[in-house]
Amino acid sequence: MRWIVEQGIDDVPLVPAAVIYDLPYAKGSPPPDAxxxxxACLAANAGPVPEGNVGAGAGATAGKIYGTPMKSxxxxxxxxxPGGPVVAALVVVNPVGDIWCGGRIVVGALRPDGTFVNQTxxxxxxxxxxxxxxxxxxxxxxxxNARLTKAEANRVAMLAEDGxxxxxxxxxxxxxxDIIFCLALGSYTxxxxxxxxxxxxxxxxxxxxxxxxxxxxxxxx
Length: 221
What we know:
Elements: H1 2-6, H2 34-43, E1 61-62, E2 70-71, E3 74-80, E4 86-92, E5 98-101, E6 104-107, H3 119-124, E7 139-146, H4 150-167, E8 168-169, E9 179-188, H5 194-218
Parallel strand pairs: 7-9
Antiparallel strand pairs: 1-2, 3-4, 4-7, 5-6, 5-8
Helix pairs in contact: 4-5
């Protein structure tokens, strides 16, 4: 908020926020505070975004119903639609569920022998589950250079959720606090109708969010 005021962007900025409860797994990383957020604003640049156990992904984990969870992290992905806008995603992958890619689990709950439990199958097979851990939230930002109204951006965020559901199972459980923010820069304009643009951007957002989730989970150490 202080950085936005200093830049003359807004005198009374409203900054949405979300958190994951990850410090037990963050290997000594300090809790985030206002000074850390201000430093992040100063350090923002157009270079590559580090992935894995960095930033808000320092203590992220996945696979928390059965077995032992695995470390997860922060992931990014983007695409440029030919003749259309750029759509990108950044996500902190910290779900109760397992991470899926290509029809198989790539990060998730582990048995003592190191194999995947497959929590969805265990649940549907009636396997009793231990007490659910509540430290689970997947936080994502989808961004585009398209021009969107607030209502259209909200719709894009809703469409982007499909990518989260494709990459995580089980998803949106009672122990998950998932959220997706949408940012629209407005620098790209087109002759598409409003409905066509929202559908295009939202579909692309789901694709890049799915990829970002898998990348963030696999990049973890």
